[in-house]
Amino acid sequence: MPKLIAGHTLINYDENVSRVVIPKFVFAIADRAFSERGQIKAIDRMIEQDVPCEDIIIQINAAKTALHKIGQVVLEGHLNHCVKDGIEHGDAEKTIADFAKALEYFSRL
Fold first, then answer.
1. Which of 3, 67, 85, 93 could make a disulfide contact with 11, Cβ separation 3.0–4.6 Å?
2. Residue 73 and residue 88: Cα distance in Å, rounded?
3. Radius of gyration over alpha carbons of the chain, in Å?
4. By C-alpha distance, which of 99, 85, 77, 79 is closest to 28?
5. How far is CA 30 from CA 37, 47, 67, in A?
6. In degrees, to the nearest 5, what angle opens at C-alpha 73 toward C-alphas 69 and 79?
7. Which of the 8 DSSP states describes residue 2?
């Protein structure tokens, strides 16, 4: 039985082989999020240590870039799994409209 996370099927139980199937993009998100937390902690330390503002801004930009990459992974996973499934098994027009909305949100990052 599929597991729903935030309304999307991310984890499936494969009855043919009796195992849980987790798409690779879920692991990529987790890895990138872990890295991003480290960058945020580094920014916090820099502020506490009174590091020059220019250096803090450089680190903030790096964190922003990392968040953008996480967004790319999420969007790609959404396209390859949720959108594909919605078109194949659901309402194609609604799926495309929802994807267009997600793409618009992503473009604002």
1. 3
2. 22
3. 18
4. 77
5. 11, 26, 12
6. 140
7. P
Sheet holding 3-5, edge to edge: 3-5, 8-14, 19-21
Is residue 50 classed as helix, strand or coil in its secondary structure? coil
Residue indicated by tokens 């409209």: 97
pLDDT in tens, 33-42: 777 788 888 9
| Cβ neighbours around 4 below 10 Å, total | 10
Q: What pLDDT is attached to residue 55?
A: 93
**CB distance 106 to 71 below 8 Å:** yes
Q: Can you give the pLDDT at residue 13?
A: 45
Q: Please tell me the distance from the alpha carbon of residue 78 to that of residue 82, in angstroms, as a whole number.
A: 5
Which run of H or E residues covers position 79?
A: none
